[in-house]
C-alpha cells in the first residue's frame, strides 16, 4: 500500500496542530506555535515519511518524529531571521518583529530542546543512532550558516567554497530527513547512505535553482523579490561564475555595480542580469543544477524498484520543475 503525498501531508499538519510544545510562560511558547503554523511545503517531514514508506506501510507511526525535523528547520529559520534582520517570513511578521529579539532567541532555544524530547521514546540503540546523525546534521547546519555570514565580507569566494556552504546550510537537512525515515524503518546502512546522499545532492540542486530563480523567475510567481540577491551582492553561484568569466569592460561594469553605494535598484538588477546573459551564466547554472539532480537520482539506483520508490522520484521531479 502506498500513501499518496496529500495523505502524508494531512498526517503532518494534524500532528503539528496537536503539538503545544509547552504552556507557560505563554510568551515563550506562543512564538513556537506561531512559526510552526505559518505553513511552508513541509518538505523535510514529507521526505522522511516517503523514505520510511519505501520499507513499511504504516507512516503514521513516525509522523511524530518527522515533524521534529520541521521543528528544527523552523528553529534555524527563527534564528536566521534575527541574524538577517528579516521583517517577513512566509508573508507574515517574523518572530523577532512580532515579539522581540530576546524572546525569539529563547523560543528558538527551547524549540531545539523540544526536538530532543520528541526522540526520547525511541528504543535505546535506535535513539543513540538517531541522536548521532541528528547532532552531526545540526552542527553542519550551523557551520553552513557561519560560512554564509563570513562570505558577506570576503572579496573572493570560490565555486567549491560556495557549494560546500550550501551543502552544509541547506542540503544536509534534506539528507538527514531521508536517512531518518530509513533508519526508523530498519533499512540497512547501505540504503540509508544512498537515501542520505540522494537528499544532499538534490538539496544542493534546489539551492542552485533558487539562486537562478532569484534572477530569472516570473515576479508574479516568485515568493520573494526578483533580483534580491543582485541588490545584496550575495555571492551566489551566478555571481561567482560571472566574476570568473568577466573580462575587460564587462569586468569593469560588474565591479562598478558591486561597489556602488547609491544606485537605482531596478537599474542595477537590469544591468547585472544583462551581464549574466552576455556571459552565459544561466545555462552554466542550469548545467550545474542538472549535475546535482542527476547525482541524486543515481543514488536511488542503489535501491530496489517499487511503487513507493517511484512515488519518491515523481515527488522530487515535481519539485525540480517548479518555477517559483
List the topology elements.
Layout: H1 5-18, H2 26-36, H3 43-53, H4 63-84, E1 88-89, E2 92-93, H5 95-98, H6 101-119, H7 124-151, H8 159-184, H9 189-216, H10 228-231, H11 237-245, H12 248-259, H13 265-279, H14 281-300, H15 307-320
Helix pairs in contact: 1-3, 1-4, 2-6, 3-4, 3-8, 3-15, 4-6, 7-8, 8-9, 9-14, 11-14, 12-13
Largest sheet: 2 strands, antiparallel
SSE succession: HHHHEEHHHHHHHHHHH
- Any idea what the shape is? globular
Decide which structural class fits the backbone: mainly alpha
Give me the Rg, rounded.
Answer: 21 Å
N-end to C-end Cα span: 32 Å
Helix fraction, binned, reads over 70%
- Tell how many strands the DSSP assignment holds: 2
- In percent, how much strand structure appears in the residues? under 5%
Detailed description of the structure:
- A two-stranded antiparallel sheet has the order 1-2.
- The protein is an all-alpha fold and 324 residues long.
- Strand 1 (88-89) and strand 2 form a beta hairpin.
- The longest helix has 28 residues, at 124-151.
- Helix content is 73%, strand content 1%.
- The model has no long low-confidence stretch (mean pLDDT 92).
- The protein has helices spanning 5-18, 26-36, 43-53, 63-84, 95-98, 101-119, 124-151, 159-184, 189-216, 228-231, 237-245, 248-259, 265-279, 281-300, 307-320, and strands spanning 88-89, 92-93.
- The two termini are 32 Å apart.
